[in-house]
Structure to design on (1708 residues):
C-alpha cells in the first residue's frame, strides 16, 4: 500500500518535471530541469515507465480541432503564414520536450535508452507508436551522418571500447581478446561510427578483411591463428561483418553510410585495393525453403519455373524443417551434385526475385538497396551452426562498385536486381 | 544573351540536384549528391540565388488538399496512425532536403551560410519565410546546447580563432592583438560555444572580468593598460560583453545557455566568486527619450507619472535629437544634478516598465528573460561615442542569482520585472 | 664457409658505420648514419653481436698516455682550461657514439635493447663492463625523472599498453583481462612512467589499493571477484606491487620517484587518504633462514642473541631447505604458536639488522633507502606458492610518511633502520 | 647592513641546498630538494648569482691528486675497472648536481636560463668556463635531436607561440601579426623544434618559401602584400630565415638538424619540390672589405690575385667605412658595372676562400659545414638597412642536395668549398 503510493508519487514527479520543462517559455533553465527529468526517469521501475509512456503518448499530441482549423486555413490560402502556423500546430509538443531533454548532459543517451526500452513493448501498445515516431524523427536528424565520426578501431583503442566490440559483434562472434587482436592486425580492419554525445559507445561497426581476391569462405577470414598477410597482397576488401550496437537507434540509417565511408577511406589509404565486396549470410533462406520456396507468378519465367520445380523435387520441399535435416546429418559436404545444384538454383532465385518483396531477405535488401550487386553465390561457405541452420551453409558476395552504386540503387528501387553472370546461370 | 543562358542553366543544375537529393528513396548516396548541391549553390550569383530561394519556398510545401484530408481523419479519429500520417504529410519536404544537405561534409556550415544570405532579404520576400522557418527549426535542433562545446578562449588558443574574436566583438571593440591579450589575462576570461561541424568558428562568446565588487564603469574593465589583479581579489564576475558570430543562427537560443554554463564553470573553478552580474548598455534608451519617453497608462502610478513629467520638462523632451545634443556638447560630466536625477529616473522607468512591451530594450529583454534582475543603474559609465549616443552614458548591472533565475524568469514571463531598491528609488 | 664470410662482413659493416658515425666532425648527418647503424646492429646474430661488443669495449677508450699527461697538467695547474681538456680526454668516445646513435628515430630504444642483451653476458666478459658503465651513465641522464611522464593506466588505456602490464607484472601475476579490469576499478589504481622516445612502453608501474586501513593480507587485494569499495572508504593507499618493464634500464633509478610521485598525485586527488604504505614480500627471508639466520656480532644485543638462539632451535635451523619443508606440508596455518613466534622474531631481525648489509633483502633495501620505515610484520599474508617459498608466507608493510622520508633516508644511509613498536617487540 | 646580511644569507641558503642535493646518497628525494634549489636560485640578485657561480665553479671539481692517481693506475693497467673508476673520479660532481636539478619540474628550463645569464659574463670570469663546459655537455645530450619534436607553426598555433616567433625572428624582422599571417600562408612555411620540458618555447625555427625557382631577391619573399601562390607552382623550397630562440642553448647543434628534417618533411608532403636552397645574407662581408679584403697567400692563385687587386682599386679599399659610404649615398642600384663586378668578385672570393678560416663568415660556415654548396651570388638582393650595411646588398643561395650533403660536409671539413660555375666565374 505504502510502496504503491511511493511509486505513483515518483511517476508524478516525472510528470511534473516534464510539464515544467515543456512550459518554460523562452526555454530559460531548460538544462537543469532536463537533467532532473532524466534522473527521475531513470529511477522509475518497469511499471512506472509504462505509466510514463502512457502519459508521453497522450498528453503531447496536437489538438485535432485546432489542426483542422489550420489545415482548412492553409487549404483556402496556402500562404507562408498559414503554413508556418500549421506546422507549428501539428508537430507534437513531444518533439519539443525531447529536444529540451536533449539539452541536459547525457540527454541524448537518455533518449536512446528510453527508445531501447520502448521498442520491444510497441507491439502491445499501439498508442505508443507516436512516441516512437517522434523519437525516430529526431534521432534521425541528430545521428545524421554529417554529425557522425568515423574512427578506426585498433589494438591501440581503449580496452573499454574494444570490450564493446567483442560484446556487440553479432555476425561472427569474437572469441575473447586474442581473437579480437587477430581481427585488428594490418590485414584486418575495423571501423565504427561514433557520436560526440555518446563518446564511449560505438554505434555501428564493420569488419573488413584485406585479401588478394573475393573470398568464398568465411572460415578462413575469421581463423584467429591465420598468418598476417603482407601489404602488397591487398587487392580486395571484404566486408565480412557489420553489427549495430545501439538498439535504441533502430531504423536510423547508419550502415549504408558506414560501408561507403569505409570503402572511400580504404581506397585513399591503400591504392592497390580495387574491389569492394561483402561476404554475407542469407539469413532468410531456409525459412523460405521450408515454406516451399514460393515466388510470385510475375517474377517467374517459364525456364525458371521448370528449374524451381525440379529443385523442389530434388530437395523434397517443403518436407522436413531444416533443423530436422541437420539433426539427421544433412551437411553441404555430403550433398550430391544434384542437391547442390538445386540449392544453388533456389538460393539464386531467392536472392534475385524474392528480395524485392516485403518479406525478402533483410541482408540482401540492405546491400542491394545500398546500390550493391549480387556477385557470387558460395557453396559450403559458412559451416557454423548458425550458417547451416539459416543459410544452408551458403554465403553470397555483394559487390560495391563505388561509381555505380547510385545507379544500381535507383534500379533496385524500381524492382530490378543486378546480378553477375555467375549468378544468372543458376536461374 | 549567352551569359544569361549559362546562369539559368546553373540554377537548373542546382534544381536538378535538389530534386535528385530529395527523391532518392532509401536515402542511399545522399552524401555525394548533397556535396554536389552545396558546391553548385555556392557558385550561384546573387540573382540565381533568388531564383533558387523561389524554388525552395514553392516546390517543397505540403499539398493543402492532402493535409486537409489527414487533418479531418485525425479530427474524427485521433489515433496513433492518423497522427503519424498527419505529421508526415504536414512537414514540408524542405526539411528533409535540408537534413540531406546536412549529410555532406560542410553541409551544416552551408545551411548556416544560406540562411545568413536569406535573412536580410526576407522583408522583401514574404514567401521565403517558410524557408527561414524550416531552417530555424532544424538549426535550433542541431545547435541544441546539448550539442555545443564550451571552450575557454586564452592566449594559447589558435590565432585563427582569436582573429575571429577580434572581428566579431560587437559591444566594446577590441583594438588589435595587444588589447585582446589584456582581455585574456587571468583577471579577464573569455568563453565561446563551438559546434563540431564548424570547428574553427566561435558561435557566440562572452567576456568576463573578475573584480572585487560590482563594476560601475566599463572604461576600467576594458583599459588595456590596467594592471592584472591578483587571484585573491576575485569576488565578482562581470559579464561585460556578449557577441554573436554567426548571423545565420539568428533566433537560435545560445546566449542564455552560455551565460549560465560560464557562471557555473567559474563557480567551480574559483570558490571565492560570490556575485555574477553584467555591466550592460541600454541601447534603446535615447531613442525612447527622443520619442518623448512614452509609457502605457497601465504601468504608470500617479507618483511615477509626476516624476516622469518633471523629468521630461527638465530634459526638454522630446526636443532635439540626442546626437544634436552631443554635437552641442552635452555630456554626463557637465550635467546638473537635476538633469542627472531626471535621466536616472527615466532610465529606471524605461528598464522596469518599458522592457516588457514588444519594442522594449533588446539587452534588457535578453537578461531579464534569462532570469536576471535589475540591480543598479550607473551614471557616466560608458563615455564612448556609442555609449553616449545610445545610452546617454548610462549602464546597468543585471544580477544573475543562479538559484533564483528560474523563478525570476517565470515572473518576467508574466510581466513582472524584479528590481533592487537602488533602482526602485528612482521611480 | 660462405656464410661465415657473410657474417663477418656484416659485422664489418657495423664497424664501418660506427666509425663513420663517430668521425663525422661537426656531427652533420649523424641522424642518417645512426639510423643505418641501428638497422645493421639489429640484423647481427648472437655471435656477431659479441664481436661488436668486443669492438665497442676496446676501440673507444681514452688513450692512457694522453689521459696521464692531462691529469699531470691538471694536478700542477687546476685551471679551467686544464680541467675542461682533462674531461674531454677522459670521457670514452663511446659515450659520444651512443649520443649520436640516440639521434636516430628509435635510437633510444635501440640502446636500451642493446644493454638488455649485454647485461646477462657481463659476468663472462669483464671488459664489456665499460660499455655497460657508459650506457648506464647516459641512460640515467636521459631517463632522469624530470624527463619521465607519469600516466595513470585505466580501462580506457590502449589495449596494447594493457597487454604489457599483464605481461610485466612480476609480483602478483595478472590472470588475464578480467583480472586486469578488476585491478583498474576505482578502488585500485595503476600508474606507470613513460618516456617520449618509447611511447608505447611502460617503463615501470605500480599498483595501488585504496582501502580503509593498512592491509595485512594480499589475497584480499588481488581477489578479482571482490566488490568495488566506495570512495568514502579510501583512507589508506597500499602499494602492493611494483614492476620494472625494461631490463635494459637496470640500475636506473625509477621506482623511488614513481612511488613518491604517485603518493603525491593520490594525495591531491583524494583528500581523505592519510596513510601510504606498501604490502611487500620478503624475498630473501627463507634463503637467510636456510643459511642459519646469520647476523654480524655488532648488530646483536644480548637479549636478541638469546631470542634468535631460541628461534633457531624451535625451527631447527639451518636444517632442511624451505622447499623440502613445504613439500612435507609446512604451512603457516598449521604452525604452532612457538613456531610462529620464532619466525616472526627472525623475520623482524632479518629486516631490521640484515638489510643494511650488502647481501640484505632487495625489497627491504629499496623501500628503506627510499625513506620508508618498517611498520608491521604480517603472518600468513601471502599463501601463494612463491610467497611460501621465498617469504615463508610473511609480508611486511613499509610506511611512507611523505614529510619524513628525507630524514629517514639519511638515517638509513647511516645504517639506522626505523621500526614501529609492533616490530620492535619481536626483537 | 641588514640588507647585506640578508643577501648573503640567501646565497648561503642556495649553497646549503646545493650541498644537500649532491650529498643525498641513493638520490632519494632529489626532486623536492632540486625544486627548492631552483626556487632559491631564481630569487638571487645579480651580485649573489656571481657568488653562486664562484661556488659552482670551485666546489665541484675533481680532486687533482686523486685524478692523477687514477690516471696513473689506468696507464699502468688499462682495465675496465680502472677506466670506470677513472671516469667516475674525473667527471666534475657539478654534472651530477645539474642532473639532479634537472629532476625538478622546470629544472631543465632553469639550467637553460642559468646558462643564459652565465654566458655573457664568461669573458670576465675565466674560471666559470668549467660551469659552461658542464652545462653545454649535458644540454647537448638532453637536446639531442632524437629528443626534439618538430612542429609546423601555422596560423592555428597558439598566439603565445606565435608571439615568440615574432619576437625571436632575427634575420628579417616580422612587422606585427599581419606580416606573420602572410608568412604562414600555404606558400610559406615555418617549422620549429620543441623540447618536452619547455613546451611553450620554440627552440629554433626556420622560415621557408615555396616558389617556382631559386629566389634572387628576398624583398619579394617577405612582402606581406604579395599574393599567395598556387600549390602547383611549388618547385623550390627557399630557406630564407633561421633564428635561435634560446641563448642558453648556444653551441648546442640544432640548426643543421632542423634544416634537414624540414627538407625531408617537405619532400614527403610536396612531391613537386625538387630544389632546396637558402637565400642568405653575408653578414661578415663589409667588415672584411673594410679590412682590405685580406686572404692568406696559400688560397690565392695568380689570376685571382690580379682580380682582387683590381677590385680593391675600383672600390677604393680599405678606404672609408661602409656606413660612411651608405651615408654618402652608396647603394647597389647606382653602382657602375665595374663596381658591381668588383663587389661580386670579392664576395665570391670571400665566401669561397675566407670561410674556412676561423674568422670566416658565420652563416657561410654554418651552411657549408652542414653539407650545402655555394650556388649563386645575387646582386641588390637585400636592400634593407641591415642588408646594405653588413652584406653590401648581396645575398647568396646555399644549395642543399640531400643525397650529397654527407659527402660535401666531408669535403668542407677538409677545407674544400664546392661552388657552382656561376660563382666560379667571378673568381
Amino acid at each position: 500500500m505504502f510502496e504503491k503510493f511511493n511509486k505513483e508519487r515518483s511517476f508524478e514527479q516525472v510528470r511534473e518535471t516534464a510539464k515544467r520543462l515543456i512550459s518554460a517559455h523562452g526555454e530559460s533553465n531548460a538544462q537543469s530541469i532536463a537533467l532532473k527529468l532524466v534522473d527521475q526517469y531513470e529511477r522509475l521501475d518497469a511499471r512506472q515507465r509504462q505509466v510514463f509512456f502512457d502519459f508521453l503518448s497522450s498528453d503531447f499530441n496536437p489538438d485535432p480541432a485546432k489542426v483542422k482549423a489550420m489545415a482548412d486555413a492553409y487549404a483556402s490560402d496556402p500562404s507562408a503564414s498559414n503554413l508556418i502556423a500549421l506546422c507549428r500546430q501539428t508537430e507534437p509538443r513531444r518533439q519539443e520536450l525531447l529536444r529540451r531533454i536533449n539539452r541536459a548532459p547525457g540527454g541524448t543517451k537518455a533518449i536512446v535508452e528510453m527508445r531501447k526500452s520502448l521498442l520491444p513493448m510497441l507491439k502491445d501498445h499501439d498508442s505508443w507508436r507516436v512516441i516512437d515516431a517522434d523519437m525516430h524523427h529526431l534521432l534521425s536528424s541528430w545521428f545524421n551522418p554529417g554529425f557522425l565520426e568515423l574512427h578506426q578501431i585498433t589494438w591501440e583503442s581503449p580496452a573499454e571500447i574494444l570490450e564493446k566490440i567483442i560484446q556487440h559483434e553479432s555476425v561472427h562472434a569474437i572469441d575473447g581478446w586474442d581473437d579480437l587482436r587477430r581481427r585488428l592486425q594490418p590485414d584486418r580492419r575495423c571501423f565504427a561510427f561514433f557520436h560526440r554525445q555518446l563518446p564511449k559507445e560505438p554505434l555501428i561497426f564493420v569488419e573488413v578483411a584485406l585479401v588478394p581476391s573475393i573470398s568464398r569462405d568465411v572460415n578462413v577470414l575469421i581463423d584467429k591463428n591465420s598468418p598476417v598477410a603482407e601489404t602488397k597482397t591487398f587487392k580486395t576488401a571484404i566486408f565480412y561483418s557489420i553489427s549495430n550496437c545501439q538498439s535504441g537507434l533502430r531504423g536510423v540509417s547508419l550502415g549504408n553510410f558506414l560501408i561507403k565511408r569505409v570503402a572511400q577511406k580504404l581506397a585513399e589509404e591503400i591504392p592497390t585495393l580495387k574491389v569492394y565486396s561483402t561476404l554475407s549470410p542469407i539469413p532468410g533462406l531456409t525459412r523460405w525453403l521450408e515454406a516451399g520456396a514460393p515466388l510470385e507468378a510475375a517474377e517467374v519465367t517459364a525456364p525458371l519455373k521448370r528449374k524451381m520445380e525440379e529443385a523442389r523435387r530434388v530437395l523434397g520441399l517443403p518436407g522436413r524443417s531444416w533443423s530436422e535435416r541437420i539433426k539427421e546429418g544433412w551437411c553441404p559436404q555430403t550433398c550430391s551434385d544434384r542437391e547442390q545444384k538445386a540449392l544453388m538454383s533456389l538460393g539464386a532465385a531467392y536472392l534475385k526475385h524474392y528480395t524485392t518483396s516485403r518479406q525478402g531477405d533483410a541482408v540482401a535488401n540492405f546491400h542491394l538497396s545500398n546500390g550493391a550487386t549480387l556477385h557470387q553465390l558460395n557453396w559450403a561457405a559458412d559451416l557454423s551452426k548458425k550458417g547451416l541452420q539459416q543459410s544452408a551453409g551458403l554465403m553470397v558476395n555483394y559487390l560495391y562498385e563505388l561509381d555505380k552504386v547510385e545507379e544500381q540503387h535507383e534500379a533496385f528501387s524500381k524492382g530490378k536486381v543486378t546480378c553477375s553472370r555467375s549468378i544468372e546461370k543458376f536461374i
The two ends of chain D are 68 Å apart (CA to CA). The CA atoms of residues 232 and 272 of chain D lie 8 Å apart.
